[in-house]
Design a protein that fits this description.
single chain; four-stranded antiparallel sheet; 5 helices; globular
Length: 153
């Protein structure tokens, strides 16, 4: 399941939708808005996330399918919020479920690394004075490229 939404989500409800005795391991990634500074050194109040929804769904679907195939997942949930999100609020949830924990964990890491580097989302830091776009992080690209064996299959 993939969902892009401007609404908050409930971690427990999303987990209960996929909970099954066929799964021996679940891995969860929950990204939240952290207390941070913008480029000017001002404290941010939150973030604003934009996306090109049709393209993002297509990109996330491909990432999800690659993870399901490579790690034999029984379930894979990706929820990403858009719009204005305040400090401490949830941004993204990834739940992977597989017969074995190692597969669930590796798949989850793969998905977040690919999402950060290769999905049509744009992040803006919001401060009292302005909104500033957050530039692409080279560290995210390095994490993405370490999955070249999966991406080239």
């Amino acid at each position: 399941m993939i969902k892009i939404t401007d609404k908050n989500f409930n971690l427990e409800k999303e987990f209960l939708k996929i909970s099954s005795t066929n799964n021996g391991g679940y891995s969860f990634f929950l990204g939240t808005v952290r207390d941070d500074l913008n480029k000017s050194g001002e404290k941010i109040n939150g973030i604003f996330l934009e996306c090109y929804k049709d393209l993002a769904i297509k990109q996330l679907s491909k990432i999800r399918e690659q993870a399901i195939q490579k790690w034999h997942l029984n379930h894979c949930v990706i929820i990403h919020r858009i719009g204005k999100i305040s400090l401490g609020e949830k941004i993204v949830l990834i739940i992977t479920a597989a017969p074995h924990r190692d597969d669930a964990i590796r798949a989850n890491e793969f998905i977040i690394d690919c999402l950060k580097a290769n999905a049509a989302f744009w992040k803006f830091n919001i401060s009292k004075k302005n909104e500033e776009i957050v530039n692409f992080n080279q560290k995210d690209l390095k994490k993405y490229l370490k999955w070249s064996d999966v991406l080239n299959t």
